[in-house]
Amino acid sequence: MCPHCGTLAWGAVDLSGRGTVYSFAVLHHPQNPQFDYPVIAALVELDEGIRLVTNLVELLPDEVEIGLPVEVCFEPTADGMAVPVFRPRVLERRQ
Questions:
Q1: Which of 19, 30, 43, 94 has its CA 20 to 30 A from that of 67?
Q2: pLDDT surpasses 80 at 51
Q3: By C-alpha distance, which of 35, 48, 41, 19 is closest to 77?
Protein backbone atom coordinates (compact mmCIF):
# COMPACT_ATOMS: atom_id res chain seq x y z
CA MET A 1 0.00 0.00 0.00
CA CYS A 2 1.27 3.47 -0.88
CA PRO A 3 1.99 5.40 2.35
CA HIS A 4 1.06 8.66 0.63
CA CYS A 5 -2.23 7.94 -1.18
CA GLY A 6 -3.30 4.51 0.13
CA THR A 7 -3.60 2.87 -3.29
CA LEU A 8 -2.93 -0.82 -3.83
CA ALA A 9 -2.11 -0.29 -7.53
CA TRP A 10 1.48 -0.91 -8.54
CA GLY A 11 3.72 -0.90 -11.58
CA ALA A 12 7.14 -2.20 -12.53
CA VAL A 13 10.02 0.28 -12.85
CA ASP A 14 13.58 -0.40 -14.01
CA LEU A 15 16.15 0.51 -11.35
CA SER A 16 19.91 1.05 -11.66
CA GLY A 17 20.83 -1.53 -9.01
CA ARG A 18 23.22 1.00 -7.47
CA GLY A 19 22.99 2.62 -4.08
CA THR A 20 24.71 3.25 -0.75
CA VAL A 21 24.62 1.62 2.67
CA TYR A 22 22.17 3.59 4.81
CA SER A 23 22.47 1.38 7.91
CA PHE A 24 23.76 -2.09 8.79
CA ALA A 25 24.14 -4.74 11.50
CA VAL A 26 26.49 -7.70 11.75
CA LEU A 27 24.49 -10.76 12.81
CA HIS A 28 26.11 -13.65 14.68
CA HIS A 29 23.09 -15.32 16.37
CA PRO A 30 20.73 -17.09 16.20
CA GLN A 31 22.38 -19.10 13.48
CA ASN A 32 20.50 -20.76 10.64
CA PRO A 33 22.28 -23.44 8.55
CA GLN A 34 21.10 -21.71 5.34
CA PHE A 35 23.50 -18.77 5.94
CA ASP A 36 27.25 -18.26 6.31
CA TYR A 37 28.04 -16.26 9.44
CA PRO A 38 28.48 -13.51 10.27
CA VAL A 39 25.66 -12.13 8.11
CA ILE A 40 25.86 -8.44 7.22
CA ALA A 41 22.27 -7.21 7.11
CA ALA A 42 21.87 -3.75 5.62
CA LEU A 43 19.41 -1.08 4.70
CA VAL A 44 20.51 0.06 1.23
CA GLU A 45 19.28 3.32 -0.26
CA LEU A 46 19.07 2.95 -4.03
CA ASP A 47 20.06 5.85 -6.28
CA GLU A 48 16.35 6.23 -7.08
CA GLY A 49 15.53 6.91 -3.40
CA ILE A 50 14.03 3.54 -2.46
CA ARG A 51 15.41 1.79 0.63
CA LEU A 52 15.43 -1.97 1.01
CA VAL A 53 16.60 -4.51 3.56
CA THR A 54 19.18 -6.92 2.13
CA ASN A 55 22.47 -8.68 2.83
CA LEU A 56 25.93 -7.40 1.92
CA VAL A 57 28.36 -9.85 0.33
CA GLU A 58 31.98 -9.94 -0.89
CA LEU A 59 33.35 -7.94 2.04
CA LEU A 60 34.27 -8.39 5.68
CA PRO A 61 32.24 -6.88 8.52
CA ASP A 62 34.97 -4.35 9.37
CA GLU A 63 34.94 -3.10 5.74
CA VAL A 64 31.32 -1.93 5.93
CA GLU A 65 30.55 1.72 6.59
CA ILE A 66 27.58 4.05 6.23
CA GLY A 67 27.64 5.59 2.75
CA LEU A 68 29.54 2.68 1.15
CA PRO A 69 28.66 2.59 -2.59
CA VAL A 70 27.13 -0.79 -3.50
CA GLU A 71 25.63 -2.58 -6.50
CA VAL A 72 23.12 -5.40 -6.78
CA CYS A 73 24.05 -9.01 -7.51
CA PHE A 74 21.94 -12.14 -7.11
CA GLU A 75 22.48 -15.18 -4.89
CA PRO A 76 20.77 -18.52 -5.57
CA THR A 77 18.31 -19.92 -3.05
CA ALA A 78 17.71 -23.55 -2.08
CA ASP A 79 14.60 -23.73 -4.29
CA GLY A 80 16.39 -22.63 -7.48
CA MET A 81 15.34 -18.98 -7.31
CA ALA A 82 17.60 -15.99 -6.63
CA VAL A 83 17.50 -13.06 -4.19
CA PRO A 84 19.05 -9.62 -4.58
CA VAL A 85 22.04 -8.89 -2.36
CA PHE A 86 24.57 -6.08 -2.61
CA ARG A 87 28.36 -5.94 -2.97
CA PRO A 88 30.77 -2.99 -2.98
CA ARG A 89 30.85 -1.24 -6.35
CA VAL A 90 33.78 -2.40 -8.50
CA LEU A 91 35.01 1.10 -9.41
CA GLU A 92 35.18 2.24 -5.78
CA ARG A 93 37.11 -0.89 -4.76
CA ARG A 94 39.90 -0.06 -7.28
CA GLN A 95 40.51 3.48 -6.02
A1: 30
A2: yes
A3: 35
